[in-house]
Amino acid sequence: MSLWADKYRPQSLDKLTYHNDLSAHLKKMAHSGDFPHMLFYGPPGAGKKTRIAAVLREIYGPGVERVRISTQIDQRQFVTPSNRKLDLNIVSSNYHMELNPSDVGMYDRAVVQDLIKEVAQTQQIDANAKHRFKIIVINEADELSREAQAGLRRTMEKYMTNLRIILCCNSTSKIISPIRSRCLLVRVARPSEGEIDDAMQAVAKKENFSLPHELSVKIADESDRNLRKALLTLEATKVQEPNLAQVQKIVKTDWEIEISNIADLIIAEQNPNR
Amino acid sequence: MDNFLLKHNHGLDLQLHRSRPKSMNEIASQEQAVQVLKKALTSNNLPHLLFYGPPGTGKTSTILALARELFGPELIRSRVLELNASDERGIQIVREKVKNFARTTVTATVDDYPCPPYKIIILDEADSMTTDAQSALRRTMETYSKTTRFCLVCNYVSRIIEPLTSRCAKFRFKPLPVEKLKERIAMVCEQEGVQIEPEATNTLIKASNGDLRKAIMFLQSGAKLHAGEKIVASSINEMAGIVPPEVVSSLTAAWYSTEYQEISKIVDEVMNAGFSAEQILSQMHDHLVTDGELSAYKKAKISLVLGEVDLCLINGADEHLQILNLMLKAADIVTH
Predict the structure, then answer these.
(1) A101 contacts: CB under 8 Å, gap ≥ 6
(2) What residues does the AAA+ ATPase domain cover (chain B) (predicted)?
(3) Could you report the per-residue pLDDT of B262-312, keeping only the tens digit for each?
(4) Pairing between strand B49-52 and B148-154?
(5) Strand A72-79 and strand A85-92: pairing?
(6) Helix (H/G/I), strand (E/B), else coil: B32
(7) Reduced to 3 DSSP states, what percent helix, strand and coil does chain B have, rounded to the nearest 5?
(8) Least CB–CB distance from A132: residue in B8, B14, B17
């Protein structure tokens, strides 16, 4: 039993419902046999990671189904120059590796220098592999320290035959320009309200319940065009009130209610009586 | 098995690296530096070098090409030590690895190459070295100058400590002039069989801003996207992360509005599209400078706001709020 947002995540590039131009471009690129480093950027909930996963699938062909199973979370231990031991969670398969170097805070440079370089220097030995390169997905790349980013620069160039890097971040502002100039920038915009509406209707259809149009428009409006948030809200609403036709108000999270209360207090007339 | 791997290796060779110049004669620009370095090829002597300049201007390419011409493909492995920011370069490494390498003397020579009696240590991205590590280099550079030449490569010369810069011959690498870029792009296009619209070439040159690597990178990605077709200007803009001019002008048009709702709506729209705030700022600035309607006083005031917002963004403020702040302040200035 997983959340709808995860359960109905599109698995392949063809199944993505919006930004069709972008999907077509990515597909062409994945099939061309060669592949640049990429930098995906866009606001949260726009579908960056879904796209990255779909691209990985597209590149490594039918073997990807197995990739998902063999995907495992393992903990890598390594030692910083100052003899500090660090643990980092890595999701990896035969073909790719997903990591989040900003987890280790200021020691992210060590991750780049040790771990990524180690992968970069290893050649793909599986002769049947479709591509000679591995892909490293770096999440939250905008949280990387400048030193870590500087450390990536030459690694990205020197080991181009063994390694492609996909960076994923919210904004390119915090990525240093030498990295930007080495990557293909891919902007993932938030879906429009209509597209969120469509996505929710599709989920409703798969879950076998009918979603009234007014409600879905309302949720789409409330969710700030963040698809994940919209789906979570839909699920929460459904759990609280199974008959969606009767729903008048959308369930908001506690912190949202709290913040809107505070905002109301600020706007309200200020006098000593209160 | 070996052959197989090799074959694939060639197949995957990337355009970018294929077009890295192999000899000094092929370096695209930077006449001054190239001239001095060519002398080194004939005279058997070379000062310590410091290359600085913006990214993609050929600093690393130049020193690698020089090393190759000096020592040839065989000896280069034993004669050149290349350290970059992806290597650990703390004070410990400078004391041990660099010093040990610098200490050894070399005599072996190969025909066809000058093979001068020194080794080269390339410290790429030297501006990311700590001050301590840099200070540790000082004596090493002097003591072993008989057997070793250093080449520091960096973007910002101001991050290199004074004692080091004074020991080196400094070369500034300028951003490539438009004609050179054009020439190179045409050359790569021809060799790789890529078709590009003339208008797109201009966009490419503008987007790359004198950074040749960027230009070739965009060209390569464009060639992948438009396999077999001509590359068009709009896809270059998208790849470079440039905000479409319509979006910027819709933002600047909102300065003339006094309605909060209206401005906030436009800002929401733009930020939801995922454009980078930094890019919006810089393009808005370009737009502002060339704007014909606003008075110089108002322009100056808006520029101040732009500067403040830029600082906030560098310090890690929320992009959405900062752009909204900028837009409201600018609207306030314009309408009063």
Answers:
(1) A88, A108, A111, A112, A138, A144, A148
(2) 45-179
(3) 999 999 888 888 888 888 898 999 889 888 888 899 999 999 999 999 999
(4) parallel
(5) antiparallel
(6) helix
(7) 60, 10, 30
(8) B8
pLDDT in tens, B202-216: 888 888 888 888 888
Helix (H, G, I), strand (E, B) or coil at B183: helix
Whether B224 sits inside 8 A of A34 (CB atoms) is yes
Beta-bridge partner residues of A163: A134
**Is A154 close to B85, i.e. CB distance below 8 A?**
yes
Buried b (16+ CB within 10 A) or exposed e, B264-276: eebbbebbbbbbb
What whole-number distance in Å separates Cα of residue B283 and Cα of residue B306?
Answer: 11
Cβ(A212)–Cβ(A244) below 8 Å:
yes
The values of phi and psi at residue B218, to 5°, are -60, -40
User: What is the token pair recorded at B236?
Assistant: 């270059």
Reported ipTM: the value is: 0.77
Strand partners, A98: A91, A137
Q: What residues pair up with B51 in beta bridges, in sequence order? A: B153, B171
Q: Which of A43, A132, A224 sits opposite B274 (nearest CB)?
A: A43
How far apart CA B165 and CA B198 sit, in angstroms, is 43
Amino acid A168: pLDDT: 92
> How many residues appear in chain B?
336
- With a cut of 70, list the residues of chain B below it in pLDDT: 1-29, 227-228
- As a whole number of angstroms, the distance between CA B124 and CA A264 comes to 56
A113 and B239 in contact by Cβ < 8 A? Answer: no
As beta bridge partners, residue B123 has B83, B152
Q: Which amino acid is at A184?
A: L
Q: Domains (ranges, CATH) in chain A?
A: 4-187 (3.40.50.300), 193-267 (1.10.8)
Residues of chain A contacting B279 with CB distance shorter than 8 Å: 172-173
pTM of the model: 0.79
For residue A95, give every residue at least 6 positions away whose Cβ sits within 8 Å of its Cβ, in sequence order, or none: A56, A59, A60, A63, A64, A67, A129, A131, A134, A135
SS3 assignment for chain A? CCCHHHHCCCCCHHHCCCCHHHHHHHHHHHHCCCCCEEEEECCCCCCHHHHHHHHHHHHCHHHHHHHHHHCEEEEEEEECCCCCEEEEEEEECCCEEEECHHHHHHHHHHHHHHHHHHHHHCCCCCCCCCCCCEEEEECCHHHCCHHHHHHHHHHHHHCCCCEEEEEEECCHHHCCHHHHCCEEEEECCCCCHHHHHHHHHHHHHHCCCCCCHHHHHHHHHHCCCCHHHHHHHHHHHHHHCCCHHHCCCCCCCHHHHHHHHHHHHHHCCCCCCC
Closest Cβ opposite residue A185 in set B224, B239, B271: B239
